[in-house]
Each structure stands twice: as structure tokens, then as C-alpha cells.
From TrEMBL, chain A:
This is ABC-type oligopeptide transport system substrate-binding subunit. GO terms for molecular function: peptide transmembrane transporter activity. GO terms for cellular component: ATP-binding cassette (ABC) transporter complex; periplasmic space. Residues 78-465 form the Solute-binding protein family domain. GO terms for biological process: peptide transport. Residues 146-165 are annotated as: Disordered. It comes from Actinoplanes lobatus. The lineage of its organism: Bacteria, Bacillati, Actinomycetota, Actinomycetes, Micromonosporales. InterPro entries: Peptide/Ni-bd, SBP_5, SBP_5_dom. Gene3D superfamilies: Dipeptide-binding Protein, Domain 1, Dipeptide-binding Protein, Domain 3, Periplasmic binding protein-like II. CDD domains: PBP2_NikA_DppA_OppA_like.
TrEMBL record, chain B:
Pfam families: BPD_transp_1, BPD_transp_1_N. This is Oligopeptide transport system permease protein. It is found in: Cell membrane. It comes from the Bacteria. Its main location: membrane.
Amino acid sequence: MPGKRPWKMVAGAAAISLLVAGCGGGDSDDASANSNTIVIGISEPEHLLPTNATDDSGSQVLSSLFYPLVDFNSQQEPVEVAAESITPDKANRVWTIKLKPGFTFHNGEPVTAQNYIDAWNYGAYGPNAQTGGYFFERIDGYAELNPLDPDKDGPQKAPTPKTNKLSGLEKVNDLTFTVKLSAPFSSFESVLGYSVFNPLPKAAFSAEGVIADGFEDQIIGNGPFKLKGKWEHDNEIVVEKVSDFKGQVPKIDGVTWKIYQDDQTQYADLVSGNVDVQMNIPIEALSKASADLGTRFQMSENSGFDFIGFPTYEPEFSKPEVRKAISMAINREEISDQIFLGSRIPAKSFVSPVVRGYREGICGEACEYSPAKARKLYEENGGPEEIKITYNVDGGHKAWVDATCNQIKASLGVNCTGSPEPKFSVLQQKARAHERIGLIRLGWIMDYPLMENYLGPLYSTNGSSNHYGWSNSQFDQLLKQGAQAATPQAAIKKWQQAEDILVQEMPVIPLRFSQNVYGYSEKVQNVEMNLFKRVDLYEIETIA
Amino acid sequence: MFRYIVRRLLQMILTFFGATFVVFALMFANQDDPIQALAGEKPVSDSLRAALTERYHLDEGFLTQYWYYMKGLLTGDLGKSLTGRDISEMLVDAWPVTIRLAILAILIAAAIAVTTGVYAGIRRGGLFDNGTLLMTLLLLAMPIVVLAPLAQLVFAMELRWFPATTTKDATLYELLLPAIVLATTVIATQLRVTRTSVVENLRADYVRTARAKGLAPRRVTWVHVLRNSLIPVITLIGVDLGVLMSGAIVTEEVFNIPGVGFNLARGIRTEDGPLVVGFVSVLVIIFLIVNLAVDLLYAALDPRIRYE
């Protein structure tokens, strides 16, 4: 454009400065293109402090930065990793944890028993508001650190705890400490595999019980990888191999955890080779994933469990026969194939196949599709004319809820509608307030591989995710007996008996077990994902 | 001129408080249970809920919460998001890339809209004019939620001309495709306004005079006509900043640009009131400043306009 007017010069100057600014930032990308490092897509972690990182992305990144006390073998039995030994006393109440010597944090501090005690105390202390705090519930002294509101949501506030130390934790020597539980629990070792039980170095604390400002952005762990630079929020987290790591050594030299807001966007990058592993291929891309990726498109089992809960306190759903009839009206196979394109497995039990003690098809007839029987049973027991399934729209549940409703309609000859709520929190609030929202769609992913991690939170009377108010004292009793049983094997027996009650009572309809649906680029091999939806960082390799 | 600017600045303060109040009220009304939203579908223990409620004053009334927010704002503290990050830090991280994207989009849009608009105006009724009118109609009809993934699929994944996504340190080239997508949301209106305005001005007395003086037709069009035709276009570009920002929410998500739109989308999804209000506050300030600048530009373009 001709002319020498000031505003044109401003525009020109802006364009030039834009060019300059643009050129400045682009150098970092290609530096590591051919080295032995990989790029894995995640979404922005909410936190990286172990006791506060309970989201998928957070615990995924932590799996590279920390070395846990125990890991799990292919039978889902705990195996000591950072711990030398973990031994209970006769009553399964006091557990002695011995650490392997010679381990250090990334800043050179040796890992000691005190590091675990400090980290756990911090996590359990109520006012620190750690999302993983409730995992310390079993340890003696938890109640004192988390005093409850005396009048429940009333005018009075919960008192400030008198102490910020768990009375159940005791240091024996530099590498040994004991954990006293408030009740015996023979399977406690499995619980210790969860990432909230990781230690924190002294450098994490600016004063006793206070995490130093900015520690989370430059977190120091005891794992095979250390943070390179800082956590670049919304952008990436780069970790590199620790040179003299004492534990199992990964085959790759580093991971760039690239942060995505959207799975579809990430898929675009996977196909164009900017991401090496995508851990969750979105449903929208499933149909073309085989064509795009070939054998690099994979599925493997994980711990996810989808189900529908009955409001058992409502009179029309109070009969187990009615609940069974609705369950029998649903063709699980058809929905898994048609809607999820085979990426989910029909569920016929109340715990996931990945835990020890799972029994295939334990749900029996009640989980088999038989419309004629279902209709007969439903009519004999006077099931309601209207069925409503409430779901949250933000989780992409509409398609299968509608399909399920259509099957119920066809099988039982009643009216069934899906009722959307904007968010899971709204759905949960209404369920807790016992509003008439009908059946509720729910899901669960385990924290540690035990039957108890399904049975306790989902079906026990005070279960943290029992949103549908089912309660059975015999079930609660069996669950407790299982926890206190002498051995993990004996515990499973009791828990299986508890599950038998669920089969009789059908408080929920088991629908599907989920799978890891993942894909990877041509640059990597031996890509495996575990039950916790995490990539196995010790096995994955780059192709030279 | 000076008095005018001072008066405008005072008005801006009022507008700022009004706007943040409205956004805060909307966010407050939309909030169901931010603590559960934060935890996803995981259970939230009672003591965690109690501690977080107290930390973020979630049990207080609307006015008290607004008061806490304003108190922080006036002392230069934007507060913390519900995930515990400093909002001022997040702003510093997010703004640069969004500003680059927006400027690039404005430049692309203005360059295309003004040149095409002028040519269409000169050749009114011709093939080129009708062609551009048809094109703008298409663009107007195409929402950005369709356009952005489509552009990504065609130009990035199939043709491989551009990278499919970008990062915080995106180069100009990496930002080009998202900027073009963003520009298309405003090009059509800008082009049509330019064209109409040029058509009108071509009939004006001063153009006839200029032609009669024997000035070269190019100079008449690009200096005399264009300068006067730009006033409505400049106004539009200023207003379009708002359109660009709302378009950025989609564009930044599709192209994974960790900017303002990206953060806003997340804040709205997780009911993170402080985060949304913090980002919108800055948006409001920028919007106000740009509009002031646009008004001042009038005087530079047309000497007949004077401010008292």
C-alpha cells in the first residue's frame, strides 16, 4: 500500500515486531528430535504434589518422577520396589516398612524414613486440603487431623486440629518406620502402591509442615526421571533420566509430557507424528484409527467400570426383582459393539476383572440379555411405567444412555428417557439430596488393585461414591471381616461373599469394563499401558 | 483533546467495575459445586470440602465474595485459581501468545478485507464484486467450530502445509493457520463495510474534484477515497476484537495454543470463578483501550473530526 501515514507505519512496525517475536521462540523444538526421548500427550495436571495429585495426568507424570514403595506384578500382587520389606505384625495392624538403602532424591538428599513420615503427615492434615488426604484414613490418628464440623454445614466451623502429626507413624531408624492402622487390614501393602504414598525431600518444606512456595513447579522426586527446568503450565513438562538411578532403569533418556486441552487435537498430532503416545484416543477418532495407525492402534484392559445405580430408597425401585428385570432388558454386547466400537467389554460382575478375586459372569442370569423373561419379571413385580436415566452431558454419555433407554423401551414396553444434567457435580448433589432423578449413570476407576477398592466406596453404607443410598448391614459386615482377615486370600473369600449379596440385591446394573485405547507413533515400540491407565515407562523404547 | 482523554479514562473505570461485576455475578450464578468439579468424579472427603470452602470463601454470600475479590484486585492481587495457581502468573503466561495470534489475525483480516473491498467497490456489479460477495456470504455462514477443525484436517493433517498444533512459543509460521482461521470470522463484515463505504465515497464531491484536478486514478482511490472510507472500517476492527477473543476460545482449543481462550474455556468448565473473572478483567481493559485508540484514530484520519 502506498502512502506514508503514521498508522500505516504502526501496522508495519507491529508486523515486524511480530516476526521478530515469532522467530525467537522456535528453536527449542527440534533439539531432541533424534535422541532417545519420547513425547507423551497428557492434559494439564491439576497438581504434582503426590498427596494432591489424584487426577490421571498428575499421577501419570508422578510415575516418572517418583519411585513407589510397591508396584504390582501381572497377578496384581504387590511387589516391593523402593521398599526392602513391608511386614505386618500378627494382627495385621502394625506394619513395618524398611527402605532400600542408597536411594537419593534428585537434589542429592538421601531418602529416609523421615521423608515418608513428613510427606504423609502433610497429606493427612485436614487444613492442607490435599485431594488424596483420605487415603491416610486407615492410619491411626487421622481423625484427630481431620476434625469434622460439629453441626454439619451449620454455623459452627470445624475446629483446627490440635496436632499435625499422625500418631500412627513412628520412625525406628533412618531406613525403617512403622505404620499403625486404626483397624487391622491384611491387604494394606496394596494400598501403598498409590502415588499419594510417595516421599518428599526436606527441600520441599520451608518450615515444618509447610510446603515451600513454588516447590510444586520444580518438584523433586526419588524416581528414575527428574524434572528438566520447570513445569511449564499448559505447555509441557520435560523430564530426563537420572544418571545413577539405583532402581530399575528405563530404556529411554527422557519424556516430554506435552499438555493438550483436547483429545481430538492430540490425535491430530499423533497422526502427524508430533506425539509418540496418545493414551486416550477419543471415540470420534475410533473409526479411522485403524486406518491411520494400523497395528500402532492398541487396546488393553484397565480398571474402569461403568454402571447404572438405582435409587433404592424410592418405593418403585425397592424390589430387587424390578432391578434385575431392568438389567436383563439391556443388551450389553450390542452397545459395546455399536456405540463403543468394541473398545469396552460387557460387564457381568460387580468388580473389575483386573483385581484378584474377580469371578467371571458372577452376576449370572440377571446380567444376560433376555427381553421376554425381563418383561415377565417386571410385570409380575409391578415395575414403574416411567424410567429415567440421569447422566452428565460433559462426559459424552448421551449416545449410550439413549441406546440403553431404547433397549429398555423395546424389552419392557415402558417409557424410558435420558435426562441430562450439565455436570457430574450437579448429578451427585441431586442424588445425595434424594431428589427424584431416577437411575444414575456412574463410573469407577480403582486406586489400588483390591476387590475392596470397588466394594467399599461403591456399595458400602457410608461408601464415598455410594450415591444411590443402598445399604445392607450384612454386606458391610462381610466387607469389614474381609479387611480384617488374616491373609489377603482369606480377605478375598469374604469379599466374594459380599459380592454374592450384590448379585442377590442388584443395587446397580453393571454395564461395561473400560479399556485403554491408545496409539503410538512409528518412533517408539514396546508401548504398554497398565491398569491405572499409565504408560509403562520402563518398557517403552525408541526405534533407532 | 487532553480533556477528552481524561473524561474517557474516567468512564473506563466505571465500565470496568460494571463489567467485572456482571461477569462475577454470572460466574457466581453458574457455580454449582466447584470443589466437586475440581475432583472430577472422584469422591471428595468432608474435611477436604470444609478446608477448600473456607479457603475460597465459597460459603459466603455473593457480595462478600465480590468484596474479597475487589479488595484483592485493588491491592494488585488477582488471587489464586481453584487449582492454587497465581492468576497473575497465569495471565503473564497466557497473554503473549494470544496477543500475537490476535494481531496476526487482525493484520491478515484487514489486509485482505481492505484491498479486496476497495477493488470490489471500484468494480461494483462486476464479476469480481459478485464473486467476493458470494465468498463473504459463505464465510458468514460458516461457524468457527466447523472451520477450525476443518482447516486443521485439510491443511495440517492431509496436506501437511502447516503443523497441526502449536505451543506457547509458537513461531509466526506455526500461528499462521490459526490466525487465518480466526481472521475469517471478521473478514466478511470488514470487507462488506469497506466496499460499501468506498462505493459511497466514489460519488463524493471531493473525489470528482480530485479527478478534475487530473490526479492519477490510483492516487485518488488509494489516498483520497480510502482514507475517508476507513473510518467505519477502523471502528469495526476495534469492535471485532471482541469477536476475535470469543473465536480464540475455539481456535486455541483446536490448535492447542495455551493462551487466554484456552484458559477461559477451562475456567468455565471447572467452575473456576476467580480464574474466569481475572482473565475477563484484563480482556475488558484491553477492549476499552482499543476502543479509545480507535476513537482517537478518527481524528488522525479525518481532520474534520475534533475532540473537545
